Amino acid sequence: MSEQASRLVLLGTAGGPTPKVERSAPGFAVVVNGDLYLVDAGNGVGRQLVRAGLDIDRLRVVAVTHHHSDHVADVGTVLLLAWGTGLTTPVRVVGPKPLRKMVDSYLDFAEVDIQTRIDDEGRPPPHTLIDVQELAGEGAVYKDENVRITTCVVDHPPMLAHAYRIDAHDRSYVFSGDTTPNDDLIAMAQGADILVHEVMHLPSIDALVEAAGAPEGLRSHLVNSHTTTADVGRVAQAAGVGTLVLTHLVPSDGGPSAEVWTQEAKRDFCGEVVLGEDLMEL
Predict the structure, then answer these.
(1) CATH of 7-281, one of 3.30.160.390, 3.30.565.10, 3.40.50.720, 3.60.15.10
(2) Which of 191, 216, 199 has the alpha carbon at shortest distance from 251?
């Protein structure tokens, strides 16, 4: 049987901890021969997988970039939903500490449901299928017959954060997670087919902070922890990638037009620039 072309599905393209009207929380699925390799699992990612027509019980990897809630709120949930749908094969969950504690705590939280389904439906205990690997630094973190996954540390103070590269048989995909422009990310992304990179529209930040009630430190965090539309094209150009996909848009609701999101990135990047949309497939 010949290998199928790999696919990228953008499950959620919003940025920030609060639920959004126009976009779902971050989550990205690389699909290879029907198997799912998930990067981040924000709120609602399980339903987004189903809406995209993907088989949630084919989940093979969940790669967590960092522990902000918009990226991890449904890590435990998507594992439980995959298990409840019929998952019987192992799932590797990778990410920074305290990932193991988080997954174990979720399984404890769901103990009544889990035990009931084991007794009533004959399902295998989920902890026997979930393999948590806490990252200690950069390098290779996973390999199977479909993909090879590597990681590097990026800049998202004050939190430890990772980016990931997924190399399939036909294409390579890099996911920045949340970060400022980062040389290690640029090095890891060299020659990739698709770079999925977060982006912030700096002129819109003052209105966003005001709408949030101007909490102390919010503007400083946004400016010092994210990549602007003015910088993201230079990152993609330095990495020599084929396509730049803009995601984790800040602001997500009521932000600028599609043209504004992409025009500065196109100024410094000679490849294709795509404004990410929920359930978009590339």
Answers:
(1) 3.60.15.10
(2) 199
